[in-house]
Amino acid sequence: KQEVTQIPAALSVPEGENLVLNCSFTDSAIYNLQWFRQDPGKGLTSLLLIQSSQREQTSGRLNASLDKSSGRSTLYIAASQPGDSATYLCATQVETTDSWGKLQFGAGTQVVVTP
Amino acid sequence: AAGVIQSPRHLIKEKRETATLKCYPIPRHDTVYWYQQGPGQDPQFLISFYEKMQSDKGSIPDRFSAQQFSDYHSELNMSSLELGDSALYFCASSLMNSGNEQFFGPGTRLTVL
User: Which residue of B has its CA nearest to A41?
Assistant: First the structure.
C-alpha cells in the first residue's frame, strides 16, 4: 500500500525566504503526483501536477520536482509571501490494475510566512 | 472557469439520521471521486465513478452509498449517521485521458450531533 510522508510537518519562515517542502512515497509505480494547497476549513486547490514521465513542473513562483526512482518530490516556493501561509499536501496516484485514479495523500506541511 | 460544485456546504444532522451530499463535476470531466477529511487528518478516498460506473472503492462504510447520474452529477448517501461521520466531504473531478489532474470542490462540512 502506498504511503506518503511529508517533512517537515510545520514550517515558519520570514517573508521573502524560499520555501522547500518535501514529499516521499514508498511505491514508485505512480501515474502522477499532485501538490495541493489547503486553507483552514477550506477545499484543496491544485497547484501542480507532475506526470510520472516528467522531472519537474513550474508555475509562477512554484516549482515541483519528481524523482520517481527514489520516491521523492520537492515543492519550491520562491520569495514567500504572507499569503502563502497554508497547509501544503502532496498526493500520488498509483498505477495498478485494481486501483485507478484514487489519490493517496501525505499529512501535509503547515506553512506560516511571517511579515 | 467552471469549478466543482458541492451542495450543501454545511449540514447538521442527528445521530441515526440520513444525509445526501451532491456533487456537480467540471463540465466534460468523466470521473468523479469522493474523499472524507476528518479533523486534523488528510483526505481519505471513499469511492469513484468513471463514465457513470463505479471504478474504485476505498474505506467507505457499508452505511454509505453513492452513484453517478446520466448528467454526470454524483450523490453520496449516508445512513444511520454516527458521531464519527462528522467531517469535511470533498468531491473531485477529472478527465481520465488528459493527465487525470483532480480538481476539488469546496467540500460539505457534515456535523453529526
Answer: B88
**Contact at 8 Å (CB) between B80 and B100?**
no
- Model confidence at A98, in pLDDT bands (50, 70, 90)? low
Does residue B36 contact residue B88 with C-beta atoms inside 8 Å? Answer: yes
Which DSSP symbol is given to A52? T
pLDDT at A29 (0 to 100): 87
Q: Which of chain B's residues have a Cβ under 8 Å away from the Cβ of A36?
A: 104
Distance from C-alpha of A97 to C-alpha of B90, rounded to nearest angstrom: 25
Query: Is the CB of residue A40 less than 8 Å away from at least one CB of chain B?
Result: no
Specify the residue for cell string 465513478.
B49
pLDDT in tens, B22-32: 999 999 998 99
pLDDT in tens, A82-96: 999 999 999 999 876
pLDDT, tens digit (0-9, with 9 covering 90-100), for A38-61: 998 889 999 999 999 999 999 999
d(CA A23, CA B110): 30
Give the amino acid at B60: I
Q: State the residue for C-alpha cell 476549513.
A: A41
Taking the Cβ of residue A108 and every Cβ of chain B, the question of whether any pair is shorter than 8 Å is answered with yes
HEC per residue, B77-97:
EECCCCHHHCEEEEEEEECCC
Q: Minimal Cα distance from B3: which residue of A?
A: A45
Give per-residue burial for B52-91: e unless 16+ CB within 10 Å, then b.
eeebbebebeeebebebeeebbbebebeebeeebbbbbbb
